[in-house]
Design a protein that fits this description.
Order of helices and strands: EHHHEEHEHEH
Shape: globular
Distance between the termini: 50 Å
Strand content: 15-25%
CATH class: Alpha Beta
CATH superfamily: Gcn5-related N-acetyltransferase (GNAT)
Structural class: alpha+beta
Helix content: 25-40%
Number of domains: 1
CATH architecture: 3-Layer(aba) Sandwich
Length: about 160
């Protein structure tokens, strides 16, 4: 299988709609939660978020396709970060990495990540971060990612 990942920067595409379905499948697999049931408006918000991010040049959709369908996708986004901007050491994020189950272990995930990193590096990102789902840490370590100890706090308005 020839693996080729490409960059998409428009929401009105078959690639974007496929990535939307990949995101839903990812959440179902990772969290056993169906966003369509819990957050019925998530698709519109998702599209709105990426439309704005694509327009500003801060994000790209990375896809891997075969002649008949898109088999994997992820998003790359440049973090709007004061420290990174001031020091010229931007931070990028890769999220929503998903490969259809029948196509896993064919280097598709690796191609998606490599393309995302290249896209982010071209935009000044020296650090690329992601959140790894349970069971995927070995995959990301093979690609050169390492755990970053971070003390992070959150406040959730009730």
């Amino acid at each position: 299988m020839r693996v080729r990942a490409s960059v998409v920067t428009s929401v009105g595409t078959v690639a974007f709609r496929s990535a939307l379905e990949h995101r839903r499948a990812l959440i179902l697999e990772a969290e056993d939660v169906d966003w369509d049931q819990i957050h019925p408006d998530w698709r519109g918000r998702y599209e709105s978020y990426y439309r704005r991010s694509f327009r500003s040049g801060a994000a790209a959709l990375i896809v891997c396709d075969l002649p008949s369908k898109y088999v994997g996708s992820c998003f790359a986004s440049v973090q709007d970060d004061f420290r990174g901007f001031v020091l010229g050491e931007g931070t990028g994020y890769v999220n929503g990495v998903y490969v259809l189950p029948d196509f896993r272990r064919n280097q598709i995930g690796s191609a998606l990540i490599a393309t995302a990193i290249k896209w982010l590096n071209a935009r000044g990102c020296r650090l690329v971060r992601l959140y790894a789902a349970n069971g995927s840490t070995a995959f990301y370590r093979r690609l050169g990612f390492e755990a970053i100890p971070v003390l992070e706090y959150g406040y959730h308005q009730q």
